[in-house]
Specification:
The structure is a single chain. By secondary structure, the protein is of the alpha+beta class. The protein has helices at 8-11, 102-110, 112-120, 132-137, 145-172, 175-184, 199-202, 281-290, 307-310, 320-358, 365-370, 372-392; strands at residues 4-7, 26-30, 47-49, 57-60, 65-68, 77-78, 84-87, 90-93, 122-123, 129-130, 139-142, 195-198, 203-207, 222-225, 231-234, 244-247, 256-258, 264-265, 269-275, 314-317. It is 38% helix and 19% strand. The protein is elongated, with a radius of gyration of 26 Å.
């Protein structure tokens, strides 16, 4: 059975909600930074009076699918479960209920097939946006509604596994700080009466090196660490052994990473160049995380930390034997984390395969064969509906 295809503009035109809010209504103000790429999960949701909405906004509701036209490679698509006010960088698609399931549209816009199209249908370099004329002409596969819903049902089951994995990741991220507090106590109250010393007495930090763009390789050998979201691979490395990396500027200011061996650290980050023999490296990395170095950053223009700002910060210096016990536990946790990441990567690969099969027709082949008569009737009704809409346009 060959599915119908239709341009997005015919089956999911841009249409904001007719709903209106009173100025003092507390509503959701949706911006791009709240949307997690590839999943559509919402983080740091902002609820505020409707009167705080800026000029470049519109109202959306539960009937819309919202697609980010800015930097489409970030793959930010959501089907909201409540109304709100959104930035105009999000396109408010309104799928036609007679031919298109809203969740089916959402999954299609997130698929690698559509992402591949979107990544080349852009204009602009620093702030690339999808060319809307091309967006609206993009032909979308349009199986009968019952098959769309069956596809959605399968994908939602698979997506639920991804969400469980993400929840597990969140819980796992709390284990290490909890272990630190259990073994050594709160660094501020210091209930165990441990020795405290200033970082300036214990470590020396230096800035990483500039990374010329021409030396970046998409299939390079060695990981790159930076303090402002920079990552990737490089054909050379600065450090043979792992180093402790501190985010220096921007959103990752104060973040602490324990690097892989043979890595590069950019000038957007600091690294621990020297440390006292009193400190084990894994213990030091966690002590720096617990210290929340971001709170000592300068705030002129954007957050910024430096050696002079963090050297006065005091950390606990436990006995070497206790640090060794902590380090042993950390290594065990990292082995578990690696297994968990490998399992998570496998789930992501399987989900990508399902998405691909969903829009080529492979995913529901057997189901379609057992419902052929009903589907043929649906397709006829679907075609008539599209023809009627085209004739009245």
């Amino acid at each position: 059975m060959k599915w119908l295809v239709s341009p997005l503009n015919d089956i999911a035109p841009a249409q904001a909600s007719n709903m209106r809010f009173s100025p003092d209504d507390m509503v959701w103000h949706l911006t791009l930074d709240q949307i997690e790429g590839h999943t559509g999960n919402i983080v740091n949701k902002k609820i505020a009076p409707a009167s705080e909405a800026g000029a470049s906004t519109y109202v959306f509701d539960e009937g819309n699918v919202l697609y980010s036209k800015l930097r489409p490679y970030l793959n930010k698509v959501i089907s909201p479960s409540e109304p709100g006010i959104a930035t105009t960088e999000l396109v408010p698609l309104l799928p036609r209920a007679d031919v298109l399931d809203r969740q089916y549209l959402t999954y299609y816009l997130r698929s690698n097939h559509f992402l591949g199209f979107a990544n080349v249908a852009v204009a602009g370099v620093k702030m690339p946006r999808i060319i809307m004329a091309k967006f609206w002409k993009q032909q979308m596969p349009l199986p009968p509604l019952s098959e769309q819903r069956r596809i959605v049902e399968i994908l939602e089951q698979a997506d639920a596994l991804r969400k469980k994995r993400a929840d597990a990741d969140t819980k796992a991220s709390r284990i290490l700080p909890a272990l630190f507090y259990k073994m050594f106590g709160d660094p501020i109250t210091n209930p165990n009466g441990l020795v405290k010393k200033k970082l300036g007495e214990l470590i020396k930090v230096r800035s990483g090196n500039f990374l010329p763009a021409k030396n970046m390789e998409s299939e390079g050998r060695h990981p790159v660490y930076g303090g402002n979201g920079i990552n990737g691979y490089h054909s050379e490395f600065m450090f043979e052994q792992p180093v402790i990396v501190l985010g220096r500027v921007g959103a990752y200011c104060g973040a602490v990473l324990y690097s892989q061996p043979r890595c590069w650290v950019t000038d957007n980050a600091l690294y621990v160049a020297e440390r006292s023999e009193e400190l084990h490296p894994r213990y030091l990395a966690e002590a720096l995380r617990v210290a929340n170095l971001n709170q000592y950053a300068g705030r002129a223009g954007q957050p910024l930390i430096s050696a002079s700002r963090i050297y006065p910060v005091e950390i606990l210096v436990p006995d070497t034997e206790d640090q060794e016990k902590f380090e042993f536990s950390v290594e065990e946790l990292h082995q578990y984390e690696n297994r968990r990441k490998n399992a998570g990567n496998q789930i992501e690969r399987l989900f990508s395969v399902l998405l691909h099969r969903a829009f080529t027709g492979d995913l529901t082949t057997r189901w379609r064969e057992s419902h052929m008569k009903e589907l043929l009737l649906e397709m006829k009704d679907q075609a008539k509906s599209l023809e009627a809409a085209a004739a009245s346009a």
